Amino acid sequence: MSTVVKDTHHDEHPSGIMRWLTTTNHKDIGSLYLWFSLIMFFIGGLMALVIRSELFQPGLQFVDPQFFNSMTTMHALVMIFGVVMPAFTGLANWMIPIMIGGPDMALPRMNNYSFWIMPFAFSMLLSTLFMDGGAPAGGWTLYPPLSLQTGDAFPFLIFAIHFMGLSSIMGAINIVATILNMRAPGMTLMKMPLFVWTWLITAFLLIAVMPVLAGGVTMLLTDKFFGTSFFNAAGGGDPVMFQHIFWFFGHPEVYILILPSFGVVSAIIPTFARKPLFGYSSMVYATASIAFLSFIVWAHHMFTVGMPLAGEVFFMLATMLIAVPTGVKVFNWVTTMWRGAMTFETPMLFAIGFIVMFTIGGFSGLMLAITPADFQYHDTYFVVAHFHYVLVPGSVFAIMAAVYFWLPKWTGNMYPETLGKVHFWLSTFFVNLTFFPMHFVGLAGMPRRIPDYSLQFADYNMIASIGAFGFGFAQLIFVYLIFKTIRGGEKATDEVWEGAEGLEWTLSSPPPYHSFNTPPVIK
Amino acid sequence: MKDNKLNMGTVKKLVFICVFMFFFSFALIPLYNIICDVTGLNGNTSNLKEKANTFSEVVSSEKLNIQFISHEVNKNKLEFKPKEFEMIISPGKVYSTVYVATNKSKSKIIGQAIPSVSPNEAAKYLKKLECFCFEEQTFKPGEVVELPLYFAIDEKMPKRIKTITLSYSFFEAIEVSKKN
Amino acid sequence: MNFLNLKKVSLLIALGLLSLPAHAGWLDLNMPKGVTDISNEVYGLHMLILYICIVIGVLVFGAMFWSILKHRKSRGVTPATFHESTKLEFLWTIVPFAILIGMAVPATKTLIKMYDTSDSEIHIKITGYQWLWQYEYLNTDVSFYSKLSTPYKEIYNQKEKNINYLQEVDRKLVLPINKKIRFLLTSNDVLHAWWVPDLALKKDAIPGFINEMAVVIKEPGIYRGRCAELCGRHHGFMPIVIEAVEQDEYDQWLANGGKVESTDLASTEK
Question: How far is C216 from chain B (nearest CA, A)?
Answer without folding.
Answer: 17
